[in-house]
Design brief:
Chain A: This is Transglutaminase-like putative cysteine protease. Chain A: Keywords: Hydrolase, Protease. The complex is a heterodimer of chains A (270) and B (470). Chain A is built from four helices and twelve strands, in the order E-E-E-E-H-H-E-H-E-H-E-E-E-E-E-E. By secondary structure, chain A is an alpha+beta fold. Chain B contains 14 helices and 23 strands. In chain B, the strands form six sheets. Chain B has a five-stranded mixed β-sheet with strand order 3-23-22-19-18. In chain B, strands 13-5-4-20-21 form a five-stranded mixed β-sheet. A four-stranded parallel β-sheet of chain B has the order 7-6-11-12.
């Protein structure tokens, strides 16, 4: 698919702030499943600082805005061509040893219930096991927006039995860890949901390291593996570590946030 | 019965390095000694040097006892130690460069991958980034114990931000002030060049983007930190700024410090803040001590951070057992300094042996420090041993065990006069464009009779450490 993405985040402050610093993981990296075309990041009144590719293969840009300012908009606009690789991440340049992703964080730490869920499943091989874990998580946590928050842990989401993509990803990471499989959180975009309706928010899923196949994506929220509807931005231990935007604001203004994500399929060229 | 090596009296004879001190002690009247001891304490209190050694916690206002009797090394003893320490510091830095790069030592099967990549101190954020000159640990504190005339063992390595060097400098300063005659009559190698060598070392690892003379700062968590005295002391002696996180900010790929003359670019940050707190945008988001965006600048080569974030993976007690292997693997040399024999409790055979011999061993937590969370078998009651056994059973991989070492003794002033007390040593090796070591270090002494625990939180004191020149 040829996709056009517009992702606008507006921060408004009830009183002007002195400035802000952001670390953005908002540029997709090339791999067999995606070829990045024109891609731009713009921050109103912002200055671009450090920019580099990290060991996970993610492109990171630091931006600063010097205030006083009461509104800042971060706009991503880009073109990308995607291909279905059945979730397998191939041709992605990264150097971090997969064992690093066996680490639990506060958000992904398995509790007794997650252990039980993970251990209720077995597979013929690592790939089969990963698929079954993803299916088990899909079944155990219903997709219900607005019930969980960004700080909800995998254990809490499972106890609730409800959550959104972040919760599914955290729970799946926890379950994979129970089986000693490296797993990580991936943030990105999704063109359309399984039923064909447009997906108008940022998205997240998990990747599990499956033996010789390497990293394979699993989207437990949609009960599938990422295909050509998915755009991969970056990875980390959990939602906080993989966050597309990490920032600090200097000042005491209360922040309100407005996010608009649009992922459109481009017209076929004649 | 265990015999302990007495560094002053060997085979009934006063050893040469202590000959002059022996006379000095014998001719000193008791009332003079008491007066001098009070004077020394008064000096320490006035300087304000009351923090806990090595960040052990405890009462920050408590004075660490200073023992006026110096610990003395002969030139040839020191030269061997120096070679061993420098060799170890080189190997540790080579290891760090390797495990944040290709991981050859793991691929070669010399160190288990798990111990490296699943280590809490391993930072994936710096994988693939090579700091200037490939140096990760710029100040390596190596804890050494002596068990015989020619027997020295490394107890542990400290690759992050080892503290205590201000004691090395202050102990010398106070001894020189109180007993100038001793220094006129002995050939004692100086240590007061340490701050200048530290400054030069830090400046030598400025990033390639640095223009002109590198600007070095010390980043402290602030005056509530138990080692704040040391931070301000070193900043003062080096002639560099002591800053807190809020004094620094990032802009367009560099780090700046706020000054009365406007922002000034900073090239090298000697941080005395743990990894987790140095940048809320990379590590703990709730940290108020760090500099937001610092890690992005670091990873794009705009500033140097000493020690490098992630350097701690080289100094935990599980990795420790492999340091001799690192020396062979990276340097192609045989280790000059020995490790203490160490049993790792995640190995079945080791586990069995340790559990059967708990009362004779010292057991430590892999990530513990400061003499807490450890069992000294021979000094513990049966109940204490059994309670510790339960802790080990719950999580064997969290522990290592070592034999109870026969730490050497040094003559030490006690109420009754002079008596032998157990000591250890921490020298501070500096790594930049060169590897340097000032002749000396911090000697800690267990002041309680028979005690083998030198930690200040457990009744330890400090001594001036002399290296005699030829």
């Amino acid at each position: 698919m040829k996709l056009k993405i517009i992702h606008e985040t507006s921060y408004r402050y009830d009183q002007p702030v002195r400035g802000l610093v952001q670390s953005l993981r908002l540029t997709p990296s090339a791999h067999e499943g995606q070829r990045v075309g024109d891609w731009s990041i713009a921050v109103t009144d912002g200055e671009r600082g450090a920019a580099f590719r990290d060991g996970a293969g993610d492109w990171i840009e630091a931006w600063t805005v010097r205030g006083p300012v009461d509104e800042v908009t971060v706009t991503i606009s880009g073109l990308i061509e995607t291909r279905d690789t059945a979730g397998v991440l191939r041709g992605h340049r990264e150097t971090i040893n997969p064992l690093v992703y066996l680490r639990d964080t506060a958000l992904t730490k398995p509790d007794a219930a997650l252990r039980e869920l993970a251990q209720s499943v077995s597979g013929e091989d690592a790939l089969d096991l990963a698929h079954k874990l993803a299916a088990a998580v899909s079944e155990a946590i219903a997709y219900v927006p607005g019930v969980t928050e960004s700080v909800t842990t995998a254990a809490e989401a499972l106890a609730l039995g409800q959550g959104v993509c972040q919760d599914h990803a955290h729970a799946l990471i926890a379950c994979a860890h129970v089986h000693g499989m490296p797993a990580r959180y991936v943030s990105g975009y999704l063109h359309s949901n399984a039923d064909g309706t447009p997906h108008d928010a940022a998205h997240a899923w998990a990747e599990i390291h499956v033996g010789s196949l390497g990293w394979v994506g699993f989207d437990a929220a949609n009960a599938c593996c990422p295909d050509d509807r998915y755009v991969r931005l970056g990875s980390g231990y959990d939602a906080q570590d993989a966050a597309p935007v990490r920032g600090t604001t200097f000042g005491s203004g209360e922040e309100s946030l407005d996010v608009r994500v649009q992922v459109e399929e481009m017209e076929q060229e004649q | 019965m265990t015999t302990y090596y007495n560094e002053m009296v060997d085979g009934g004879v006063v050893r040469e390095p202590y000959a002059m001190l022996s006379d000095w002690v014998e001719t000193m009247p008791a009332e003079i000694r008491q007066m001098k001891q009070a004077e020394a304490e008064d000096l320490f209190r006035r300087i304000g040097i009351t923090f806990a050694v090595y960040g052990e916690g405890g009462d920050p206002d408590r004075l660490i006892p200073f023992d006026m009797m110096p610990r003395v090394f002969l030139q040839n003893e020191w030269r061997k130690l120096e070679r061993g320490i420098k060799q170890r510091a080189r190997a540790l830095n080579a290891f760090l460069r390797d495990v944040y790069g290709r991981g050859e030592i793991v691929r070669a099967g010399r160190i288990p991958a798990r111990l490296v990549y699943q280590n809490e101190a391993y930072e994936k954020a710096v994988v693939g980034f090579v700091p200037p000159r490939g140096v990760y640990s710029h100040i390596v504190g190596i804890d050494i114990v002596r068990t015989g005339r020619d027997e020295f063992y490394v107890l542990e390595d400290n690759c992050r931000t080892p503290s205590g060097v201000s004691y090395m400098l202050e102990n010398r300063e106070i001894m020189m002030r109180m007993f100038p005659a001793l220094f006129r009559n002995s050939r004692i190698e100086p240590v007061d060049q340490y701050p200048e060598i530290l400054r030069r070392t830090l400046a030598s690892v400025a990033p390639a983007k640095c223009e002109g003379t590198p600007t070095v700062v010390i980043l402290t968590p602030g005056h509530y930190n138990s080692a704040y005295y040391e931070h301000s002391f070193l900043a003062n002696l080096m002639g560099v700024e002591l800053v807190e996180g809020s004094d620094l900010f990032v802009d367009k790929g560099f780090v700046y410090m706020r000054t009365t003359q406007g922002p000034k670019r900073v090239d090298v940050i000697y941080r005395r803040i743990d990894d987790a707190f140095i940048d809320p945008l990379c590590f703990r988001p709730d940290s108020m001590l760090g500099v937001p965006g610092l890690m992005d600048v670091y990873r794009s080569g705009g500033v140097s951070i000493c020690s490098a974030p992630g350097a701690g993976v080289a100094d935990d007690k599980a990795i420790y057992t492999f340091v001799p292997e690192m020396v062979r693997f990276y340097l192609g040399e045989e280790p000059i300094l020995n490790n203490v024999q160490t049993w790792t409790l995640w190995k079945e055979d080791d586990y069995k042996y340790v559990m059967a011999n708990l009362k004779d061993l010292v057991v430590k937590e892999v990530h513990g420090s400061g003499g807490y969370g450890m069992l000294v078998g021979p000094k513990s009651t049966k109940d204490e041993v059994e309670a510790f056994r339960k802790k080990i059973e719950a999580d064997p991989s969290n522990y290592i065990a070592q034999p109870t070492l026969a730490l050497s003794t040094c003559p030490t002033f006690v109420d009754e006069g002079i008596a032998p007390r157990h000591v250890d040593l921490r020298p501070y090796c500096l790594c930049g464009d060169r590897i340097e070591l000032v002749p000396g270090g911090l000697t800690r002494v267990a002041l309680r009779e028979g005690s083998l625990v030198v930690n200040s939180s457990q009744g330890g004191g400090v001594k001036d450490t002399w290296v005699l020149s030829e």
